[in-house]
């Protein structure tokens, strides 16, 4: 068995940022801090302590039941009616955990327009695509310019070398 202390992305002075992991070769799992409540638990693959895992399963069942009864609901409807925090319901819907006869709508991550799949609406997706294409184009131009500069430096260095040879032959 090996005891490993890991520091998460927090300040060095923060004692809460310390994660304790106990690794073993047995099937007991790994000792970690629960990402939701912070308690120490033996992770056997679910990623949460038993209490938080049970709560997330309870949330999932509530949302499933609500979606079956109201197939064309919005994410806000789910959060209001089931009393589940909006961010929890949103992450579950975004992960695609609920397949119902209808569609669940939730806000676009960029503009807030109601969508039924993905992170962005069609308009925002095209803007993201255009930005990606432009970034790739700028990167290619930058690389081409760097290559031209490299070739120019190489040529000037070679020319300088040739001039030095001529000077040496002339006795300068």
Question: What does this entry look like structurally?
Answer:
The structure is a single chain. The chain has helices spanning about 50-70, 75-80, 85-95, 120-170, and strands at about 1-5, 20-25, 30-35, 40-45, 105, 115. It is an alpha+beta fold and about 170 residues long. It has 3 domains: about 1-50, no CATH class; about 50-105; about 120-170. The longest helix is centred in the last third of the chain and has 49 residues, at about 120-170. It is elongated and about 95 Å long. The protein starts with a strand and ends with a helix.
Task: Name some characteristics of this structure.
single chain; 172 residues; alpha+beta; two-stranded antiparallel ribbon; 4 helices; 50% helix; 14% strand; disordered N terminus
Short description:
The protein has about 170 residues and is of the alpha+beta class. Helix content is about 50%, strand content about 15%. It is built from four helices and six strands; from the N terminus they run ββββαααββα.
Write the layout of secondary structure elements.
Blueprint: E1 2-7, E2 18-23, E3 30-33, E4 40-43, H1 50-69, H2 75-82, H3 86-94, E5 106-107, E6 114-115, H4 122-170
Antiparallel strand pairs: 1-2, 3-4, 5-6
Strand arrangement within the widest β-sheet reads 1-2
- The total count of strands amounts to 6
Given the C-alpha coordinates, what overall shape results?
elongated
Helix content: 40-55%
State the order of secondary-structure elements, H for helix, E for strand.
EEEEHHHEEH
Into how many domains do the coordinates divide? 3
Biggest sheet, in brief? 2 strands, antiparallel
Strand content: 5-15%
Q: How many helical stretches?
A: 4
Mean pLDDT: 77
Stretches where pLDDT is under 50 for at least 5 consecutive residues are: 1-26
Structural Rg: 29 Å
The end-to-end distance, rounded to whole angstroms, is 75 Å
The computed structural class is alpha+beta
